[in-house]
Design goal:
Shape: globular
Bound molecules: adenosine-5'-diphosphate, 6-O-phosphono-alpha-D-glucopyranose
Protein name: Bifunctional alpha,alpha-trehalose-phosphate synthase (UDP-forming)/trehalose-phosphatase
GO biological process, one term: trehalose biosynthetic process
Largest sheet: 9 strands, mixed
GO cellular component, one term: cytosol
Strand content: 15-25%
Family: Belongs to the glycosyltransferase 20 family. In the C-terminal section; belongs to the trehalose phosphatase family.
Number of helices: 17
Helix content: 40-55%
GO molecular function: alpha,alpha-trehalose-phosphate synthase (UDP-forming) activity; trehalose-phosphatase activity
Length: 483
């Protein structure tokens, strides 16, 4: 029976070693959380990296890592610490990630990183080929594996290969600055179908292909000498039912079942009746606009002191890629900003910012989503932003206001949110005032529309639509051959 081979750099499970034992936790990030539901329900094998380098896993635990992965229909790929440095911290996260998010000043062009990127992409391609059988469908994910589709195609010319990019694709003027732009585009074009979250990213990609490689592009089809490649946008959704159900369960908890966090959040809301909690959740990443958000919050408190002791910004930042200098710098900047603003505005009974720098279990995430009447998400660039969608899905009584940056892919589908430019502090402050004053009927009306759309365009539909379009390319290929 044919199967789907999913391949991404990060597996949905993160393995770590605690006191000589393996600990398994869910991975953070939109790709892993979104795709997990598709993988769980279908007949697929997922190949990827479990989060530890070869050197970090003691010999006696190596088999155990593979077993933990296998329990979840995954295959763990071994990467050495040199490979992780050059491929993951290097080319993926110091070259492609900043460039594709328009942070050109952070983008490094280093031949050694590129060498490791090719080497590890080849390793992933070889791993796919070990599991590939005729009739299988191969689905490659994200910017760490841009060369994999063509590497697989070279060895298995008949394979049906899809590629989905979870981050923005930048405009031609930005992409053209990459020294290895031709190789990267040729690498992705090994796929039969290439998917993006938004039409804009799709357009940027097609424009780069036609201007750099000079292939013929008609609407959303690229004609290669021997094949046609289709490009389309598929905005990723969430596992709506899972978040909705988790929120309903959260409200059923009796007092003794509540988490400490839930108790503290409830206590805050009960002790200050007209208070509101403003939530933000992100990986600690410079693309997420975390420092901008804190500064905008300071602007808001300066300009509208009547909100002092009435609001609290609850900020969860999950540690991410801390070997890359920009992430370490951002961590210091955020620590400093939180300290300064808490010092500036705190009173004996109130601190304006609650800042958590850690990962939290799913139940706590739901505690936060359900307790905070406002979500403030201000990315400077973001491929999609699933947190925005998860927040709305957990608002089971339909109240709550989402303030969302127009730079997030999700903003295209979430018009009923308050859409802001995160660089415009006045606009952010105004949106906060609007959110505070928004009558409940209006909140309900907006959220019901959002919920209806999110329920319909769930992650399941996203994956099915992509798969359907991918299967259709097989038929097109036969038609192309007969011309
Ligand atoms: P990105 O993919 O850039 O990290 P998204 O907003 O698209 O951004 O996705 C983040 C995902 O990570 C969401 O699905 C969210 O639920 C999950 N997540 C965020 N913080 C945590 C956390 N502390 N623990 C577990 N999952 C988290
Ligand atoms: C984003 C990327 C994913 C990545 C995730 C977490 O969602 O699109 O590919 O897995 O961030 O980042 P990490 O570097 O920890 O895998």
């Amino acid at each position: 029976m044919s199967k789907t081979i999913i391949i991404s750099n990060r597996l949905p499970l993160q393995i770590s070693i605690e006191n000589d034992h393996l600990e398994v936790t869910p991975s953070v990030g939109g790709l892993a959380t979104g795709l997990k539901s598709f993988h769980k329900d279908g007949d697929s094998v997922w190949i990827g990296w479990p989060g530890l380098t070869e050197e970090e896993i003691p010999e006696k635990l190596k088999g155990e890592v593979q077993k933990k992965a296998k329990d979840e229909n995954c295959v763990a790929v071994n990467l050495s610490s040199d490979e992780i440095d050059g491929f993951y911290y290097g080319f993926s996260n110091r070259t492609v990630w900043p460039l594709f998010h328009y942070f050109m000043e952070y983008t490094e062009a280093d031949d050694t990183y590129w060498k490791f990127y090719k080497q590890v992409n080849q390793k992933y391609a070889d791993e796919i080929l070990k599991y590939y059988e005729e009739g299988d469908v191969i689905w490659v994910h994200d910017y760490q594996l841009l060369l994999v589709p063509n590497m697989v195609r070279e060895k298995a010319p008949e394979a049906v290969i899809g590629f989905f990019n979870h981050i923005p694709f930048p405009s031609y003027e930005v992409f053209r600055t990459l020294p290895w732009r031709d190789e990267v585009l040729e690498g992705v074009l090994g796929a039969d179908l290439i998917g993006f979250h938004t039409y804009d990213y799709e357009r940027h990609f097609l424009s780069s292909v036609s201007r750099i490689l000079r292939y013929q592009v008609d609407f959303n089809e690229i004609t290669l000498p021997d094949r046609i490649v289709k490009v389309d946008s598929f905005p990723m959704g969430i596992d709506y039912k899972k978040f909705e159900q988790a929120a309903l369960d959260h409200f059923k908890n009796t007092e003794d079942q509540q988490s400490e966090l839930q108790r503290r959040l409830n206590h805050h809301l009960e002790s200050t009746p007209d208070a509101k909690l403003i939530l933000s959740i992100d990986r600690l990443d410079y693309t997420k606009g975390i420092a901008l958000r804190i500064r905008a919050f300071e602007y808001f408190l300066d300009k509208y002191p009547e909100f002092i002791e009435k609001v609290r910004l609850v900020m969860l930042a999950v540690p991410s890629r801390s070997n890359v200098p920009q992430y370490r710098r951002l961590k210091r900047e955020v620590d400093e900003l939180v300290g300064r603003i808490n010092g500036k505005f705190s009173t004996v009974s109130w601190t304006p910012i609650w800042y958590f720098y850690r990962s939290m279990p799913f139940e706590n995430l739901i505690d936060l989503y359900t307790s905070c009447g406002i979500a403030l998400l201000t990315p400077i660039r973001d491929g999609m932003n699933l947190v925005a969608k998860e927040y709305i899905a957990t608002r089971t009584n339909h109240t709550g206001v989402l303030i969302l940056s127009e730079m997030a892919g999700a903003a295209h589908e979430m018009n009923e949110a308050l859409i802001i430019n995160p660089n415009n502090f006045e606009q952010v402050a105004q949106a906060l005032c609007t959110a505070f004053g928004m009558p409940e009927e209006e909140q309900i009306q907006r959220n019901k529309m959002l919920q209806k759309r999110l329920r319909r365009y769930s992650v399941e539909k996203w994956a099915n639509d992509f798969m359907k379009a991918l299967h259709a390319t097989r038929e097109n290929r036969d038609a192309f051959k007969s011309i």
